[in-house]
Design goal:
Layout: H1 8-12, H2 14-19, E1 35-41, H3 45-55, E2 61-65, H4 88-99, E3 105-109, E4 111-116, E5 131-136, E6 144-154, E7 158-161, H5 168-171, E8 176-177, H6 180-183, E9 192-195, H7 201-207, E10 215-218, H8 225-234, H9 238-244, E11 248-250, E12 254-261, E13 285-290, E14 296-298, E15 300-303, E16 306-309, H10 313-316, E17 321-322, E18 326-327, E19 340-342, H11 354-390, H12 405-413
Parallel strand pairs: 1-2, 1-6, 2-3, 6-19, 8-15, 9-10, 9-15, 10-11
Antiparallel strand pairs: 4-5, 5-6, 7-16, 12-13, 13-14, 17-18
The chain binds flavin-adenine dinucleotide.
């Protein structure tokens, strides 16, 4: 699809993005043949990148997406080359529109409720081992359907665990942000707040040090003697950092964060939702109320928040969780379960942004394709061996397992009188 430059401002507006047609296909026809080279779980940037990589080498792949995107609360997505300042929905739509060009892939809405690994005793030379992916298509467990896949790519993302303090959840992503690269530039030089436990203060202050000078840190009752001692050990010099930057600590317990102005409409006379690329200031304004004493006004905040896996399908099928509950992977993005990859926010890289999600999706796609190709070559060799032994050829006996180095040596090495014969495997 070609985008006319005149269309772009309209495309990036929130209203337009919301009206974008869904390119998914949930029809039964889409599942006529239930066997896939891979199923990608999750249609965020990581899953879409994996799908794209596999589409380009004509792998038969199904992407299943439940549509709960981590960056859905934000107004615009930033720091993604070529897409700086568009809505997350526009980015996903543009990606889907391009990927759907490739006819070996399918995308559908649905929630994967469980994944069962293939029987470990299956001989992959004679039978294709398939994972069974059980998916709910209308959100109800009584409408599940089983799909078979040789490989699984989990791009299921993380869920932010927002505090119940009134105003935090309601305003998250719109003036209360979580990462300076995502939303900091839009609030630069504004009266600013850091909300989080005392332990999170030094790293948050450093992260916004080039964006905001007028900063108050709201530590919500965590400024205690014990916490100060612990921080002295963990982050020596933190007090000097705050003094040097003229930053005050507010320790009163927050009772509410109340929006006074919406930066998506009241930003210097411009409408931020129809933002010009790549960045436009957002003039939000909030009042922080405390259990006692006067309130304080601030234009924007960075929050320190915990998160967890958005889906437990990986863990439930045996994928090991690591560190702060992230799915374990090796450098090939492979989990501890053979044939299962974990990409994007959900894996242990501890890097949670769209470029990382796309990089890991692409990397997993390459490794997944090559792994499938190896399995296929191994099976071909096996069958060729079977055929030649049954037709009376003097070739060596059938390899016992795929990719066994000794077996492959026997196949490629030729016979004793062959010019390519390089001797026995054990030398
Ligand atoms: C408020 C906010 C703003 C942000 N802004 C930016 C930004 O400007 N720039 C940037 O680079 N990063 C930004 N990020 C980070 C970015 O959102 C993530 O790094 C990125 O979305 C990770 O992509 P992902 O594919 O791993 O996960 P996600 O985008 O979260 O996608 C996961 C997908 O998996 C689906 N899923 C989960 N479980 C299942 C299941 N069982 N079955 C089927 N589907 C399932 C979900 O529905 C979802 O669609 C922001 C984050 C937040 C919270």
């Amino acid at each position: 699809m070609k985008l006319s430059p005149s269309l772009i401002p309209a495309l990036i507006s929130t209203a337009w993005a919301a009206a974008i047609p869904d390119t998914s296909d949930t029809s039964v026809a889409a599942f006529e043949d239930n066997h896939y080279d891979a199923v990608v779980v999750g249609g965020g940037p990581s899953g879409l990148a994996a799908l794209s990589g596999l589409a380009r080498v004509r792998r038969k792949v199904l992407l299943i997406d439940s549509g709960v995107y981590r960056n859905a609360p934000t107004r615009h997505m930033h720091d993604v080359l070529g897409f700086d300042g568009v809505t997350p929905a526009y980015f996903r739509w543009a990606a889907r529109k391009q990927i759907e060009f490739y006819d070996t892939i399918q995308m559908t809405n649905g929630t994967v409720v469980s994944i069962t690994a293939p029987d470990a005793t299956i001989n992959s030379n004679t039978t294709t081992p398939y994972f069974t992916v059980t998916t709910a298509f209308d959100g109800g467990s009584d409408a599940t359907r089983n799909i078979s896949a040789r490989r699984i790519i989990l791009g299921t993302g993380l869920r932010d665990l927002l505090s119940d303090t009134p105003g935090i959840r309601q305003n998250f992503g719109e003036g209360l942000y979580w990462c300076p690269w995502c939303d900091g530039h839009e609030h630069a030089d504004q009266p600013f707040g850091v909300i989080g436990p005392l332990s999170s203060v030094p790293s948050n202050v450093r992260e916004v040090s080039t964006l905001n000078k007028d900063i108050i840190v709201f530590v919500n009752g965590t400024d205690t003697e014990d916490n100060r001692k612990a921080l002295d050990t963990a982050s020596p010099g933190w007090q000097s950092l705050l003094q040097y930057r003229n930053i005050t600590i507010e320790n009163r317990t927050i009772s509410a964060v109340v929006r006074l102005r919406d930066g998506s409409t009241a930003n210097n006379g411009t409408n931020a939702t129809a933002a010009a690329l790549p960045s436009v200031e957002e003039y939000d304004l909030f009042r922080v109320d405390f259990e006692e004493g006067p309130s304080i006004e601030r234009a924007a905040f960075i929050l320190s928040i915990a998160n967890e896996q958005a889906s437990w399908v990986g863990r439930d099928m045996g994928v090991a969780l690591y560190g702060e509950g992230r799915m374990y992977t090796d450098s090939n993005l492979l989990t501890n379960i053979k044939g299962v990859y974990a990409i994007g926010d959900a894996n242990l890289d501890n890097s949670t942004n769209v470029p990382h999600a796309m990089y890991t999706g692409k990397r997993a796609a390459v490794n997944c394709h090559l792994d499938l190709a190896k399995e296929e070559a191994s099976k071909d060799i096996y069958i060729e061996q079977l055929n030649s032994s049954s037709s009376g050829s003097t070739k060596r006996s059938v390899p016992p397992t795929p990719l066994d180095p000794r077996a492959l040596w026997n196949v490629v090495n030729g016979d004793l009188d062959d010019v390519l014969f390089a001797g026995e495997y054990d030398q």
